[in-house]
Specification:
Elements lengths: L6 E5 L4 H16 L4 E9 L11 H25 L3 E9 L1 H13 L3 E5 L5 H7 L2 H8 L3 E5 L3
Parallel strand pairs: 1-2, 1-4, 2-3, 4-5
Helix pairs in contact: 3-5
Length: 147
Amino acid sequence: MSMTYKNILVAVDQSKESMIAFRRAVQVALNNVGSRLYIVHVIDTRSFAFSEGYNFDSADKLANSRKDMLDEYEKIAQQSGVGQVGKIIEYGTPKHIIARDIPKQKQIDLIVCGVTGKGEVARLFLGSVSEGILRTARCDVLVARNR
């Protein structure tokens, strides 16, 4: 059975596992000629709930640094030969946005994510993002392992 993916979503942060997932997603995009690769980072708003007052300057700096991160990922994808690359920054709960919202908006066929990422403390209380994606996504999910 042959499966063709037209719209591939890869979830990234600044972790080693994220880079492994990104490289895997680039390879899948290259293997599926004409596909579009969407690179997404979700700023987890749950972390703001634990801070004393919301600091808009800090939030803007965080968003700008994440935009720069996505620009770097986009550059790598394009240099690798991926022709169509989209970047998405969202705010909210990562596993919901990655598994449900963006796939519906962009008609995603495949979600690629790392086995773990930066949300390790939250995972103890809320479950991992990759686990949440696996449980709720309506499309194929590839969880890249660090092996």
